[in-house]
Design a protein that fits this description.
Radius of gyration: 42 Å
Order of helices and strands: HHEEEEEHHHHHH
Number of helices: 8
Structural class: alpha+beta
Strand order of the largest sheet: 2-1-3-4-5
Number of strands: 5
Largest sheet: 5 strands, antiparallel
């Protein structure tokens, strides 16, 4: 155990220890490891810190030896042979370097923020329309539709009956019998 304590101080992480094991495959040494930044946005299952036995988190820690890596989580142990663990580590490292995965957290945060902002804007517009759009008010709707119908009929009516190429005298122009404006006025009074 003296050799273990001395060597444990020199290892910065599990990969340094694995390099030493390659030089000394018959070694019986092992290290305790704690996960770093567990539960944060930057969690990496292979980001492990070498610790002494007294610093081990009994609910979540790893041990590494020439045989492999053991993960103890809540009293349940999961063993992975060293070669398989190294392969998984390399694959994970390659995977997180792909831009899609490297930028995923930033993209997800932006996407969620954008969705929330758009939702708030839509709700604000909806509220304003409900307050100010009189056609949605049940008591004002019939009157508004009636005014719209009258306006439409008025826009279709001719207010002056003037033919091209005809010169009118003042008396002919003001004759109430042929004046469409009087007819429109009568309809409006109705």
């Amino acid at each position: 155990t003296v050799g273990l304590r001395e060597s444990a101080q020199t290892f910065r992480g599990p990969l340094d220890f694995v390099e030493m094991l390659k030089r000394r495959p018959d070694s019986l040494e092992f290290l305790y490891l704690n996960p770093v930044m567990k539960g944060t946005n930057e969690y990496n299952p292979y980001n492990l810190r070498v610790v002494s036995h007294g610093q081990v988190n009994p609910q979540d820690f790893y041990t590494i030896s020439a045989a492999g890596v053991t993960h103890i989580l809540g009293g349940v142990a999961e063993f992975t042979p060293l070669a398989a663990w190294q392969r998984e580590y390399r694959l994970y490292d390659s995977l997180v370097k792909i831009p899609l995965f490297a930028k995923y957290r930033l993209w997800k945060s932006y996407s969620t923020w954008r969705k929330n902002v758009r939702g708030k804007k839509v709700n604000a517009c909806k509220t304003q329309l409900e307050k100010n759009l009189f056609i949605l008010n049940p008591s004002l709707r019939p009157a508004l539709l009636a005014v719209r119908e009258i306006s439409h009929h008025m826009s279709m009516m001719r207010l002056y009956n003037i033919l091209d190429g005809v010169t009118y005298s003042l008396a002919d122009f003001c004759d109430p019998k042929s004046d469409p404006m009087h007819l429109a006025e009568e309809k409006l009074v109705e």
